[in-house]
Design a protein that fits this description.
Layout lengths: L1 H45 L5 H32 L3 H29 L1 H21 L3 H15 L3 H10 L6 H29 L8 H9 L12 H21 L4 E3 L11 E2 L9 E4 L7 H9 L2 H12 L1 H4 L1 H7 L1 H9 L5 H23 L4 H15 L1 H5 L3 H29 L5 H30 L8 H21 L1 H4 L5 H13 L3 H26 L4 H4 L1
Antiparallel strand pairs: 1-3, 2-3
Helix pairs in contact: 1-15, 2-3, 2-6, 2-7, 2-9, 3-4, 3-5, 3-19, 4-5, 4-6, 4-9, 7-9, 7-15, 7-18, 11-19, 15-18, 16-18, 16-20, 19-20
């Protein structure tokens, strides 16, 4: 009875809080609706006539995200239920999986630059398919670990390469909106994965009832006996991932290595309309990856001043990006221990992907012409401030406000971080930029996980006196360091290329143009330049020059 009462009260408080937010949004809607609607319409109009590869990239993003989120939601449960790992061992393997994805990404960035987007996606999804099939069929711990290594390798050729694809298949006008849609699709897959996981695990929840105690005993005695294979709910989820990967492999086979011509050069001879599209407004050209050795590519990248400014941005924003680890790992346990086992933690958590799906298209369409770095700067302040609702109050409304404001900030800055990464990276070297920038993230993942566990143990234990506000204050202060450091470093990170650097980059670009095209361009441009010089000379002459002559 007490549990039902707590659940009823939690639901009522949550409902009142959401209703209050809904009323505020409804009151503001008349002021924003017309302008927002026009911006969204403009955003979708800006991608009309895009090459088919852009839409295929969106579809591949959905398939990849759905496969990832459904598997990650049950991964630790799968390890315990089907392989007999303890909670500690399962958590360690889960952390190692995430770290391996980042580590392989660091090692394969140069490979992506040499292979190109299309080939990298084909290889990546094929590797993931093999790994998922092994996970589905195996009952061996050794084969499971081997398949996780393969899955990590395939995963590092998924999301980063799709991000590069968005850049190649967009232009300056619609790139910001495309990255916004890209982010929305990922969150839609996350939102969909929850009910799918619940359905599969409920349908097959009696797969191995009663075996957990035996496995925990075997773990304590450091022995393990393989079990017979059966279609548990967790293996059914892996099977859904296999189906997603099969479709992704088929779609990836049809991808072409192209890029959209820049806005400044729509009439270049190498660019041509994609004949498979009607009313195409974008001109595309074949993209040829620039092959080079790992040493040459890394040397070229680290010698760029823009790369070091980019790396500073990545490192400075590390703490605010880690808040999502606390959203996944710290907040659920905090809510259960403070408000009881029947707290609607899933409903509160689902606010995040739902708000992202609503806000990102609006914000992306309205701010697509604003510099990505400016959006990252402002959005980080909002995300960092969200934590302090939990410092002020230990209540369900505070949890809701934390997720709401975190989501608003995320909608502002997170999609534009993709945009910023691709805009700062040299074309053809995006993979190396992303790989090198992932090194700080790799080093931070495990310490943040340890920090979450330590803070929960010390300030929000399952039994005993709690002081959760101190825990969130520590998390809030560490998170707030990101926007503050962005402000302090703004003069450096927002610096643009000077004229000599721009000349060097232009020379690099011209050196890649075929000689016959360069000669034709020179024939066209020289008369124009000469006429401009003559015109400027005429304007400089005295107005009575004709009388004097």
């Amino acid at each position: 009875m007490q549990a039902l009462k707590e659940h009823f009260i939690s639901e009522k408080v949550l409902e009142k809080t959401l209703q209050k937010n809904k009323k505020l949004a409804t009151a503001a809607m008349p002021l924003l609706s017309s302008d927002v609607t026009s911006k969204i319409v403009e955003g979708f109009q800006s991608i009309r006539g895009s090459p088919q590869e852009l839409y295929k990239t969106f579809f591949l993003k959905f398939l990849d995200s759905f496969s990832y989120f459904t598997f990650s939601l049950v991964f630790t449960l799968f390890l315990t239920s089907d392989f007999g790992y303890s909670d500690l061992s399962a958590g360690t393997i889960y952390g190692a999986w995430g770290a391996l994805v980042t580590l392989f990404g660091l090692l394969t960035g140069v490979v992506v630059d040499n292979l190109g987007v299309a080939s990298s996606l084909r290889i990546g999804f094929a590797i993931q398919l093999v790994a998922k099939c092994i996970i589905f069929y195996t009952t061996s711990r050794f084969m499971l670990m081997l398949s996780l290594c393969l899955l990590s390798l395939g995963g590092c050729l998924g999301i980063p390469v799709l991000v590069i694809g968005i850049r190649r298949y967009s232009n300056e006008t619609n790139r910001g909106f495309n990255f916004g849609l890209f982010y929305v699709i990922m969150n839609f897959a996350a939102l969909l994965s929850g009910p799918v996981v619940d359905y599969c695990t409920i349908l097959y929840k009696n797969g191995h009832v009663g075996d957990e105690e035996r496995f925990l005993q075997e773990e304590a005695e450091q022995v393990y006996s393989e079990r017979s294979w059966s279609l548990t709910g967790y293996r059914l989820i892996v099977l859904l991932g296999i189906l997603s990967n099969i479709i992704a492999c088929v779609v990836a086979q049809s991808m072409k290595e192209i890029k959209v011509c820049a806005d400044e050069q729509p009439e270049m001879g190498d660019c041509e309309n994609d004949s498979s599209l009607e009313n195409v407004s974008f001109k595309v050209q074949t993209f040829q990856p620039e092959n080079a050795s790992m040493y040459d590519i890394i040397k070229e990248t680290v010698s760029s001043a823009a790369f070091w400014r980019f790396l500073v941005v990545i490192m400075v924003t590390l703490n605010v990006r880690m808040i999502f680890r606390h959203l996944d790992a710290t907040l659920p346990k905090y809510m259960i221990r403070e408000f009881g086992a029947n707290v609607p933690k899933g409903t509160i958590y689902s606010i995040n992907p739902l708000m992202i799906m609503i806000l990102v298209p609006i914000i992306s369409a309205a701010t697509t012409k604003i510099d990505p770095l400016v959006m990252i700067h402002h959005g980080c302040y909002i995300s960092a401030a969200s934590v302090f609702f939990l410092v002020i109050s230990t209540s369900i409304p505070a949890c809701v406000l934390f997720v709401v404001f975190l989501s608003i900030g995320e909608a502002i800055w997170s999609p534009r971080l993709y945009d910023y990464t691709c805009s700062i990276a040299k074309e053809g070297r995006e993979g190396t930029y992303m790989a090198l920038s992932s090194a700080p993230l790799f080093l931070a993942k495990l310490p943040v996980g340890m920090m979450s566990g330590y803070l929960l143990h010390k300030y929000c234990p399952e039994e005993g006196e709690r002081n959760s506000k101190i825990m969130w204050l520590i998390i809030g202060l560490s998170t707030a360091s990101s926007p503050i450091l962005l402000t302090l470093c703004w003069g450096y990170i927002s610096k643009r290329e000077n004229s000599s650097q721009a000349d060097e980059r232009m020379n690099d670009l011209l050196s890649q143009v075929p000689q016959h095209e360069l000669s034709r361009l020179q024939q066209v441009m020289v008369p124009v330049v000469n006429s401009q010089i003559e015109l400027s000379d005429i304007k400089k002459r005295p107005s009575n020059s004709s009388v004097l002559t």
